[in-house]
Design goal:
Distance between the termini: 47 Å
Number of helices: 8
Number of strands: 10
Helix content: 25-40%
Structural class: alpha/beta
């Protein structure tokens, strides 16, 4: 709607001049902060420094929504249930999905960027998935690439510019997977577009079309524009609903044909 677009523009303009709209709204809690500080001191509390945090008064116990929260947890649970011999991840969030999996098993991580850390249960290799060596074809019986494929070929992470980077990358994800193995992929879905150089938003059916004759779709889940997860068996209705999203997330579980 025009109102939602206007609100987004206002938030953008406010953030560009260095004002956090959430922090600005939280100023209404300043009297509460001052009153509680006074009570603390009256009861003998000694304050060494002040660092007013006003945004937490009405927050929930935690953030349990959004693309990364849902995909990281869902796919880590699937990998735990399937217990593959080897699991390889390409470009997913280290402090989310990779850490989830490393909590219960070994995981190999491929990325075009270096990883400047040593992490228990994580082995790391630098690879450009747009140029996968042939000796790495059918490398693993379990492969994931979560919220990363949409960036391939846009140069954002130092990768080479390629308008078809997501297509070539997806084909190499298939090549990396052994016959009968699992491939887990998530990408932004909704109104199809390229937002240079940030990301692409794909049609929810695009990866399914690219997978034809190579993969079987085992399940499709999605995160809607509100950040809520929808998991179920009615793939076709989920795809129709995903078409109407602005910036949702499609979560695909494929099995490679033998």
């Amino acid at each position: 709607t025009n109102l939602s677009v206007s609100m987004k523009l206002v938030k953008l303009l406010v953030s560009l001049i260095g004002i956090n709209p959430r922090a600005l709204l939280a100023l209404r809690f300043l009297p509460r902060y001052l009153a509680e500080k006074k009570r603390f001191q009256a009861r003998g509390g000694v304050i060494g420094e002040q660092f007013p945090i006003l945004t937490d008064y009405e927050d929930s116990a935690g953030m349990a929504k959004g693309h990364y929260f849902h995909q990281d947890l869902l796919i880590a649970q699937r990998i735990f249930a399937n217990s593959p011999k080897r699991h390889v991840d390409i470009g997913s969030r280290v402090d989310g999905f990779v850490a989830h999996v490393a909590a219960f098993r070994e995981i190999e991580l491929f990325d075009i960027r270096p990883l400047k850390a040593t992490i228990t249960n994580v082995t790391f290799q630098i690879h450009n998935l747009l140029d996968l060596p042939e000796d790495m074809h059918e490398y693993s019986d379990s492969v994931s690439c979560l919220h990363a494929l949409e960036h391939f070929g846009l140069g954002r992470y130092g990768d080479p510019i390629d308008p078809e980077g997501h297509i070539k990358g997806f084909n190499n994800l298939i090549n990396l997977t052994k016959p009968g193995g699992k491939l887990y992929v998530s990408v932004p879905v909704g109104r199809k577009r390229t937002v240079f150089n940030a990301h692409r938003v794909l049609s929810p059916r695009e990866l399914i079309g690219l997978a034809a004759g190579k993969l079987i779709l085992q399940s499709y889940s999605y995160v809607d524009d509100r950040g809520d997860l929808w998991v179920g068996q009615d793939t076709e209705s989920f795809l129709v609903e995903s078409d109407g999203l602005d910036y949702g997330l499609g979560i695909y579980e494929f099995t490679k044909l033998v």
